[in-house]
From TrEMBL:
Coiled coil: none
GO molecular function, one term: methyltransferase activity
Active site: C235
Protein name, per record: Methylase
Extent of the signal sequence: none
Amino acid sequence: MKEIKISEEFLSRMRDLLGEEEFEAYVKSFDEERLYGLRVNTLKISPEEFVKITSLKLHPVAWVNNGFYYEGEERPAKDPYYYAGLYYLQEPSAMTPAHMLPVVPGDKVLDLCAAPGGKSTELGAKLKGKGILVSNDISNSRARALLKNLELWGIENICVTSEEPRKLKSAFGSFFNKILVDAPCSGEGMFRKDADMVKSYEEHGPEYYAAIQKEIVGHAVDMLAPGGLMMYSTCTFSVCENEDIIRLILENHEDMELVKLPLFEGASDGIGLSGCLRLFPHKIKGEGHFMALLKKKSGQVPAEMSRWGSKKEKALPEELSKFLSMISKPLISSRIEIKNDCVYYLPEYFPENGGKLRYLRTGLCLGEMKKERFEPSQALAQSLKMEEFKQTISFKKEDERVIRYLKGETVFLTESEGSKKGWCLICVDGFPLGFAKGNGDTLKNKYYPGWRWQ
C-alpha cells in the first residue's frame, strides 16, 4: 500500500463493510495510480468533436458520455481550450451524480453544496440556457470560485448564493423540481486521490459529518416541489453518512420515495438499502462515491413564479444599446438591470421573495457602465458563440497570439487579417476567449485580469 497513513480503526471498519476478500482488493487499489478526468462542456462542443480537435490523449469514462480520462503527465489546465471553457477537470467518479440527475431544459435546479462547481457546470449545461440554476455554497470564498467556473462554462441562467440551507428554504419554499445535495462528508473515498483527506478525516470522522448531513437534507426536502427529484451524494463509504441518511429521509418524510438507480459495470448496490449506488476504487476506474435518488410524491404546489422586471421594453443607455446591437441572439430589455453601474441579464423567472438572499451573481453579468461608456464582461464573452457577435477574430490554437492574449498583452493583426475598429470577440479555433478593443491592426486587450494565464 502507498505511504498513506490510514488508521487501523478505519481499516477495521472497511473490512467489516466489505468482507475479507473484497477488503484485500480495496487495500491493493492504493498501489495503483490515481486517475485523472475531464468532462466536456456540451454547451459549447460535442464530445465527439472535442476528441477530434484536442491534442490530449483521452479514453472515455464508460458510464459518463461526456467524461474522459487523460494521462497524469499532461497539463490540460494550460491548454487554450480550457480557457475557452470547453472542459472541466474532474475526477471520474465525481462526474456521476450530476450525470445521473435527469435535468432537462426549463427545470428549476438547486445545487445546494456546489463549490467549486464540478457538478453545477454539468447541471447548467443540461439546462441549455432555459430554466434556472441556483448554485449555493455556505463559504463565500468557495462560492467565488464556483462563480468563476460557471461563468467560464458560459452559463447565463444562474444565481450564485452563499447562504445556509435554512435561509434558502425561507426564501424559496418548495420551488425546485431538481435538487443536488453533494453533501460535505468525511471523504473516505478520496484517500488515494488526496492524502490530505486522511488528516481531515482524523479531525472529523463520519459521525461529525452525519449530523451536518441530517440538517442539510431536511431543508433540501422542504425546497423540493411535488414530483421533484433530489440526488444525494457523498465521496465517502460509511453507512452512517450514506444509507442511514436516506433511511432518515424516508422515515421522516412520508411523501419521499427512493428511485432505484441503474447499476453499470463495476457499480454496486447500496449496503442494506437496495436502489442506491456505490462506487469503489477496486471495482471501477475511479475513486469512491455514493448516490441515492429520491422523489417527492406529494405536497403543497409552489407559488407561481414572478417575472424579473416588467414586460414593457426598457429604455437603455445609448452606449449599451449600441453594443447590444452587435449581438445576434435576442436579449429582452425588460430583463436587463443596471445596478451600481453593473449591467445584468436576469433569469426569466424567480420566486417573489428570492431577492432576500446574499447573491454573488444573479443572471449573466453583461458588463459595466463607465460614465457614458460600456465595457462588456468576460462572462458575456464566454456565453456567446462566435457567430453571435458582429466583429470577431479567430486564431489557431498554435498561434502565439493566443497565449499573448490570455496573458493580457496587446495583440497585433497581420495585413491579410485586415483591421478591426471597436469591440472585437477574440476566439481560439472558433471558441470565444474574451473581448478586445480594435484600433486598426492593434487589439487592446480586455481579458479579465483575474483569469489570466499564469
